[in-house]
Amino acid sequence: MTGIRNRFLIAVGAVMAMALTSCNGIMSGIYDEPEAEVASGFGFTSAPVGEVPGTIYVDASSYTDWVYLDFHTMRAQVVPIGEPEPESWDIALHRYDAKTNGALVAETGATGFSSPASLYDVSEDDFSADVWTEETIITDMSTMMDGYLSYEPSWYNPVLSKWLDVDKSTMPPIYTLSNHVYLLQLADGSQAAVRLDNYMDSASIKGYLTISYIYPWHK
Predict the structure, then answer these.
(1) Alpha carbon distance 181, 47 (integer Å)
(2) Spatial separation of the C-alpha atoms in residues 124 and 21, rounded to whole Å
(3) How many CA atoms lie within 13 A of 71 on its CB side?
(4) Which end of the chain is more exposed for a tag (fewer CB within 10 A), N or C?
(5) Residues 121, 127, 132, CA angle at the centre, nearest 5°?
């Protein structure tokens, strides 16, 4: 009888494991949290060459970190929310939200760096500075089912953050890339151009950003 009972328990355990695996597959991505290891090689993975953009690969999967990017030094640095900012940085990313270090941002009509020069024409009025927000930077999604979220008061650039629209009115959310190139007038007067190419890694886990960029920008 003992042998029969053991075989029965093993069979039940296998069925439960299969059920849990199936549930994980169904629920994956709904709450936009990573579930697997990701590729290494984050940061400025390649430099621009002439009009050929370089690439930045960012792990922005954490709700409790900012990723600071410095175009001048080609450095990426992860800093937990609440800790001091790096001494030198140009833009910072939290999930798909962006803020700048005293920069102005404009959305161009270009959808790629090879677009006609006319699509890059922007006026001074098209550039926008950061704004202060207390209900944009989400730091904790675990209470969503309880009807509230936790936020960090922070500066935020609404123009650069348009590079990805996340419609949370449906489940799962709908993600739409703008595909536009954004011009950044940095604090020192130089310019950079960036485009968000992807918001997922090779395993389709969300929160991993592939960014094309040219710095310094001249068109």
Answers:
(1) 17
(2) 53
(3) 28
(4) N
(5) 160
